[in-house]
Amino acid sequence: MKNDKNARILLVDDEPHILQFLEMGLVEEGYRIATAPDGMTAVNLAGEFQPHVVVLDVMIPGMDGFETCRLLKKKGADMAVIMLTARDEVEDRVKGLKLGADDYLVKPFSFDELLARIEARLRNQFPSLFGEVALGPFRLDDRRREIVFMDRVLELSPTEYDLLKYLVINHGIVLSKSKILDAVWGYDFGGEENIVEVYVRSLREKLNDKEHRLIRTLRGAGYRVDLP
User: Fold this and answer.
1) Is residue 1 in some structural domain?
2) What's an example GO BP annotation here (predicted)?
């Protein structure tokens, strides 16, 4: 889906062919793009370019991606940061989240998945770019914290709202329980992962999703929302 909202994306990677590939694809999607080969250039450029989303490689020369993320978030708290890492290690994920990262992708990744993550971050953190977001049978209004399903306003608790919004905005993406906990409950949540199952069960009841066609369970992987 083409983007016509002038959303700005800053790409940070020291590999020119990756920057070129991502820039070409995102420009084709209608985004305004700036690129940086290292962290210091990215931080300086962010002040002028004011990106909505930063796609940031962890392994960049000089100042690494973690320190770059910290400085970018200090410069603009609303700026969404998606970190790219070659290692899917829990320590890297937690470290990035503690420094303000909003999402992460493990290399190698598909362009379509990165595009989906960018769109999700924009809808989640910059709803004013879109107003009310319509996704399949859902309409999300973040200003009113209201979700309409099949023309029916859902009666949701604050946590149910946050969880359903996260699942719907990331439709088509498999989300593990740990990733959901980080996004909805926070990386410092000290409870059990099973709380996700409890809330998913409640959402399925409110959506009349008895056959789990909307919120699918992928055994050993997590959950995925499939929109009709």
Assistant:
1) no
2) regulation of DNA-templated transcription
